[in-house]
Amino acid sequence: MEHEKKKDGNELSKSTCVRFSDDEFKRIKRDAALLGRTIPWLLKETYFKGEIESPILIKEDAMKIMTALARIGNNLNQIARKLNSNFREGFHDGITDALSDLESMKMFIGGAYGSR
Q: For residues 69 and 107, is the Cβ–Cβ distance under 8 A?
């Protein structure tokens, strides 16, 4: 079986299947019709001609950071519990701020890497 060839001479012998939601399919079908192109052409052009956003961290590193932040948060919670039991006074605001900052970092990393 002979495969289609691109202008650069490379064979187009590989294919894949992409699943869409109903809304996604309606949108891409409409856009392909408006452009007078096929859905595979539209997907290839978008992917290979566009700029793909590179993540700041690879997912494994993000997960390690999330784990470390969770451990730090647990330690801060233990400290806050002791301070709130009137063992010591005067540090409460600093602990609360640190917990809030940790939660913000976890939300940023979790949101960017799809893990919460």
A: no
